[in-house]
Structure formats: structure tokens, C-alpha cells
Amino acid sequence: MVNIVSRMRRLRGKLLWIRVGPGALVFPSEVSKISLQFAKRLQGGHGGARKFWREMLPRIKFRNPSIPIEVLRHTDADGPAKLDIYTTKTTSDSTAPSSSEPTHSIDVKMVNESAILQELIAKTGATVLKPTAEEEEELRDMAEFQGRSEKDRVEVRDKLMAQRREEELLRLARGEIATAS
Amino acid sequence: MAPSRSFLAPLSRITTCAISISKPDAPRLALLPLQSIRCASQKSAGTKKKKARNTYVQYDTKKAEQFSLVDAMHYIRAFEVGRDPKSSKYEMAIRLRSLKNGPVIRNRMRLPHPVKTDIRICVICPPDSKHATEARAAGAVLVGEDEVFDQVKEGIVNFDRCICHSESLQKMNKAGLGRILGPKGLMPSSKTGTVVTNVAATVKGMVGASEYREKLGVIRMPVGQLGYTPDELSTNVKAFMETLKKDIAQLSDRISKEIHEVVLSSTNSPGFSLNGEFKGPDSISTKDLSGPL
After folding, report:
1. In this structure, is residue B212 part of a structural domain?
2. Which member of A26, A85, B152, B167 has the greatest number of CB atoms within 10 A?
3. Which SS3 state, helix, strand or coil, does residue A155 take?
4. Residue B17 lies in a domain
5. pLDDT exceeds 60 at position B230
């Protein structure tokens, strides 16, 4: 297994990614299910939906663990790309079976992922969560670490290249390799 | 250009001995310092070899962030959003403190909630024999001889495992199923242990059992489907740990193996080191994790 410190650092980054960022929101209690439908291939404007699934749905699911989230992918490029939101009526009439008919249906063809998120928030009235002070601190730490490691990487690479160049020159001077000039 | 260089190279090798300096056509003085450098590098290359260790490197788990089962499941279910719940699995990796060259743990067990229950088993044996009824009782989907052959020849193969009773082997070989079943790896043969006399026991063993094995000091095994509730998963994990402890106890006294770290992960999520508790103080309720994904 990998050294535990670097393993934990990677894990912390991933957990921070799922807690903080676009999509960290809490739905009101009447939202009962979310279903996203799009094609497996990108042609025909299904790219935004896929990105929304990969980048934002995990955060939504993390903040709303009890709400089922379904992703259906079909093979038809001309087929629908839509986001269905199902709600249960908390008001008097509960005759309409909420599972069969979506309350809101958003067409997400040719729409990018942040626009989908905006639309979703507008339709459901979800509350967006701001990162807490600790999480902000952690984000700052991580950014700082990234900056430092980038600097170190350049330093190490320069040193290594210089070393290799020197060895190459030595070999050349000794006449061990014939392809220099 | 080229010949002059090839002429120089052998000369430089000659200069290793001290006599070469006296030679009138020896290369210039500039070569001498280079020679001394080469000697120096040869000397440094011959350092002592480090003795190889016979245990695996262990890290202090105090440095690891550890999670309760419910917390880990909360994260994992979020990482697995939108995946097919049938194809994604919870996995377990157990790190042991053990010797590199010691015996390894290897066993199979039945979990209380089997991971792969939808295995469809086909049994080839005379349809009205005792074996057929036994196989059906044990959970085989398709039992028979000629009807199975006909189905397969038409190209309908809706099973994942195929077992053949040793009495029906000849009949099956005559039917010529190898061309269809062979490429799928379903053709029964005694080499793979799928031609048996006790059909019922084999079917039972195949239905819910999973195998595990220690590799490089780590045991990995799938322990649950993604749709399991925290309680189901926890019984599975507990049963797995119990069997593992029994396996360790069965080893001879001189060999010590201890469980060092238990990690829960899934097909598309990072691994979470478990702290052995079911629920932490800040965990969400188990009801939230019990519903469909």
C-alpha cells in the first residue's frame, strides 16, 4: 500500500471535493426523486448532462442521501436529454401518483452543466450551502500545498536534467557514444 | 569524420596503463583527467547491498483518518451516484501484519447476504433422474439434456455457469456444443471442475460463495452490493472478519498474523479506513442510507 500520509492527503482532497463546490445544496423536503436521462455519446448536445452527472450529482447525493438519483443513458443521439424532478405533494390532494409523472422536466440538450444546475436550483428552490470556515481553511491549505509541490517539481526536474546533461557530456568526451556532432 | 573517431576510441582505452603517456602518438593530455574520473566512478558504484527485509512496511494507522461504517457508506453512495447498482460492489481490503515468505490465507465462505445472487446455473443431466431434482432444489435454473442442447444450438445461452453430470458427458460431447459454449468459457470439462458426480453440492457451493486470498499481505474481497442497507453490510463485514480470524487462528503457533487495517471501498470510490464502529456521533440516520440509490 501507499505511504499513509500521501494516501490520506489524496483522500482528504476527494472528500473536500465532494463536500464543497457547485452542487452542494439541500433540497426542500417535498423533492422525492431526481432522474437524469441522456445519450451515451456526446453528439447531439448530451455533453453538458454527462458533465453534470460526473461533477455535480455526487455533491447533490452527498448532501441529500435519502433522495434517489437515477441516471439513464440510452444509445440514441436524437433521443431526449432531460432532467426530471419528482415531488410528493405535501398539500391536501395526494391523489396524483408522484412517481409516474415528473413535476418539473428540464430539457438539458445543448445546455452546459452550470446552466443545468442554475435551472435545477430555480425549479426546486434548493438552498445552496456555503463552505464552512474549516472547509475554507482546508481549501487554502490544499491550494498552498499544490503551489509548493509545483515549485518543488520544477526544482527537482532542473537538478535532474543538469545531472543527466553532465553525464552525457562525460560519456561524449570519453568517446563511448558516437552520435554527438 | 567517422573513421577519426573510431580511431580515437580504442586509443583512449589503451591509455589506461601508465606506459601510454610515453607513447608519442598518444592523445592529448586532456584525456587524462577524464580517465581518473572514470576510475572514481567505478569505485563508488561498488557499494554494499542492503539486506532485503522479510516483512511488509507497515504504516501507523494513527495517522490515518478513520471512519465509522455509516459515514463511509454515506460518502461511498455519493461517489457511486448514477451507477448501475448491480455492477458496483462494496469491497473490503484487509491489511495484515505478516511475513513476506510465510504461508498465505486462502479460503472461501458464504456471506449472510451473498454478493452475487443472480448467477444462473445450467445443469446437464438426465431430466427425470434424482440428480435433476436435487439440482433444481439447489437453485439451478436450467436442467436437462436434449432441451438444453437444442436451446444452446439455437443460440439462446441465458446462464452464467454450466455444470455437467459425469454420466451425461458423452452425450454432451456428441451434441457438439463446444463451438458455442467454448468461446464463452462455459463448456463443462473436468479440468475446470465442472464435470461432477455430486451435482447438488456443486450448485450450492457456486450460488453464494465468494473466495478470498492473501496477496502481498492484503486480503481483498467484495462484501456487498451497492443497494445494501448499513445493517446488511455490517452483518456481512462481521461474518467476514469472524471467518478471517478463525483462519488466522488455525495457522500454526509459530506464525503470527494480525489484522492491521480494514479498508472499505467500492468500485468507483476511494478507500475508507474503518474504525470498527457502526455509527459515529455526527453520522446521518441509517434510514437515509437504506433507500434506493
Report:
1. no
2. B152
3. helix
4. yes
5. yes
CATH number of the domain that residue B155 is part of: 3.40.50.790
Residues 6 or more apart whose CB falls under 8 angstroms from that of A132 comprise none
Residue B285 Cα distances to B204, B229, B288, angstroms: 36, 11, 6
> Considering its fold, how many domains does chain B have in total?
3
Segments forming the whole domain that contains residue B152: 121-206
pLDDT attached to residue B142:
72
Instruction: Measure the CA–CA gap between B293 and B281, rounded to whole angstroms.
Output: 24
Chain A residues lying within 8 Å of B33, measured CB to CB = none
- Spatial neighbors of B258 by CB under 8 A, at least 6 apart, are B96, B97, B98, B248
B75 touches A at CB < 8 Å: yes
In chain B, pLDDT over 90 holds for what percent of residues?
Answer: 9
A4 neighbourhood in chain B, CB within 8 Å:
59-61, 63-64
Q: How far is A6 from chain B (nearest CA, A)?
A: 10
pLDDT at A163 exceeding the cut of 80: yes
Q: Is B286 on the interface with A (CB under 8 A)?
A: no
Task: Indicate if the pLDDT at residue B18 is higher than 50.
Answer: no
CB-CB contact of B274 with B65 (8 Å): no
- ipTM for this prediction: 0.83
- For the cut 60, the answer to whether the pLDDT of residue B28 exceeds it is no
B62 reaches A (C-beta below 8 A): no
B-chain residue closest to A2, CA distance? B59
The CATH architecture one would assign to domain A22-128 is 3-Layer(aba) Sandwich (3.40)
The answer to whether B78 contacts A5, with C-beta atoms less than 8 Å apart, is no
By residue count, chain B amounts to: 293
